[in-house]
Amino acid sequence: MVTERQALRTVALCLVLVAAVKLLLSEYRTERKQKLTIMDPGSFWHQGPKVKEAVTVHKSEVMNSFFNWAQKPEVPEPPVEKGADTAPLETSKGPARIVHLDLKGAAPKVKYMKQIFPLFSSLGADGVLLEYEDMFPYHGNLTILRSPYAYSMEDIEEIKSLAKLNKLELIPLVQVFGHLEFVLKHERYFHLREVRAFPNSLNPHHPGSVALVKDMVSQVMDCHPDARWFHMGADEVRGLGESQDSKNWLHSNKGDVGKMFLNHAVSLARFITERRSGVRVILWDDMLRKISPATIKESGLQDLASPTIWNYLKKMDTDGIGMLISRYHEAGFKGVWFASAFKGGTGIDQRWTPLDYQLQNHLSWIKVMNSMTKYPSITLHGILLTGWQRFEHHTVLCELLPVGIPSLAMCLQSLKHGAFDEKAKMEAHHILGCNIKVEKDICEGSGAFSGSQIYHMVFYIHTNLQKEVEALMKHYHIKGGFSRYHRKYNFANPRIIGFFQGRLKKLLDKWETYIENFRMEMDGIYFPDTVEEWMEENVNANMDLLRENARDAERILKLNGQPKSLKTL
C-alpha cells in the first residue's frame, strides 16, 4: 500500500512538473512574440533592426502613401540595457516633420525649450533642425564667433537630452558658403569674403576658407555625435564669382559658376560624411536650380547629400516644384527634402503671423507630396517647417516664436491629417487650449501653451499701441495748440493743455504698466539683447512720443502762457 501511494505521488509530481514546464514555455513564446512584434526593421531615423518603444501610432487621415500610418496596439516596452542605443524614435510613418529653430535672432533660453519640445512632439513633429549661427559655444580660434549670450556646452547637452526625452531627432545646421555674415563681419575674416565690401559669402578659393568652415563643422559635429543628418546650408551665396580669385578660376573654367559652387559644396559634403560614417548631409537647393543635372552628376554631389527644395509662398508653383524633383532625379539624387514656412517667410519685419498665408503654403506642399508617387525612385525624407527669425544676420527680427506657435500647430496638424479639417482643428485646440481662426489670424481663447502670454500681449500691442497713440496725437487741441513747434519754443496756452493732459497721462500710465508686464514675460524666455531689440523696433517709438508729450505738457504748463523761448533740457 505504501509503495502504491509513493508511486501515485511520484506520477502526480511528474504531471505537475510537466504542466509547469509547458506553462513556462508558453509564457516564453508569448514574451518572445511580443518582443518580435515591436521590432522595427529600420526606417528613416534608424538603420537595421532596433527595439521600438511602445507607442500608439495615429490612424491614417491623409490621402497619399507618405502619410499612411498604421494604428498599432500598445505593447509592453522591452527592457533596454544600460548604455544601449536609445536614439530618438520616429513618431510617424512616411516623411519626417522637422521644426526649424532659427537661432540667429531671438534665441530662446533653454528653459523655454524644456517647455516647447513636448509641445512640438504632441503636435506631430519628429525632430528639430537647430540653425545655431552665433549661439553655438565655439571655442579655440572660433571663440570670436560666439554671441555674448551663446549657449554653453552644458546647455547643448540639456537640449540634446530634452530632444531625446521627447522623441525628437536633432539635426544641426551650420552654414558653409553663403549666409556667413556672423563670421565674415569680424575683421579677422575680412580677407575670406567673396566680395570685400560685403560679409555675405565665403571666397571658396582662399586656402583659409575651407579650413575655417571645416573647423566650425567639426566643433558642431563633435557636440552632436548621435546626429544622423547634418545640414550644411549653402543657400543664397551672394556675389559668387565676383572676387579676383573667382574671376581667375572662371577664366580657366569656361565661366562655369555652377561648377565652382559644386566644387566647394562637394568638398564640404565629403568632409562631413568622411568625418563620421553614416551621417547624411542636407543642403538648401536654390543654388542647384540653374545647374544642369549632368553637371551635378559629374560633381558627385548626389552621392553625398540630399537637396532641400524650399518654397514659402502662399500660391506656390507646384508644377515648378515637380520640375525640380525631376531634375534632381535626373541628376542622380536618391532622396530629397521639402521646406515650408510656419513663420518668418513673409515680411522682413513681420510682427504677427498671417495664418492663411502659412496654411496655403502647407496645403500646396501636401499637393506636391501627393504627387510623389510619380517619382518612385526618389525618396522624400521629410519636410522642414522653417521658422525664420531674421532674413539674415543684419536684418530685424521677424515674428517671435510664441507668436508663431498657433501657426506651427496648424501647419503640423495639416501635414498630419492632409488638411486643416475639423479633426485637425479639434486636435490643435485640445493641445493649445485656444481655437485657431484662420480668417481672423488669431487663436481665440486664453491658450494653455507655453508662451501664450507673450502671444496675447504681442497681439494687443500689435493691434492697439500705435493706433491709440496716433488717435491721441490727432486730438484737436494737440494738433492745433501743442505741435512740435509749440513744444520746441515752450509756447502754449495752459487752457489748451488742460483739454488733453489728463487723457495723455492716463494713456501713458496704462501703457507703462502694460509694457512693464510684457517685459517681464519676455525676460522669462529671451536674453536681454532680444528684449531690447524687440522693444526698440515695436514699442519705444510710440512710448517715447507719449513720454515726451507728457513731460513737455507738464513743463510748459508751469510757464503760464509766457512768450516763446527755445526749449531747454
Could you say how many structural domains there are in total? 2
Give helix % range. 40-55%
Shape: globular
CATH topology of the largest domain: TIM Barrel
- Which residues form runs of ≥5 with pLDDT under 50? 20-92
For the largest beta sheet, what order do the strands appear in spatially? 5-4-3-10-9-8-7-6
What is the CATH class designation of the largest domain? Alpha Beta
> Order of SSEs, N→C?
HEEEHEHEHHEHHEHEHEHEHHEEHHHHHH
Strand content: 5-15%
How far apart are the first and last residues' alpha carbons, in Å? 123 Å
Summarize the structure.
This protein is of the alpha/beta class and about 575 residues long.
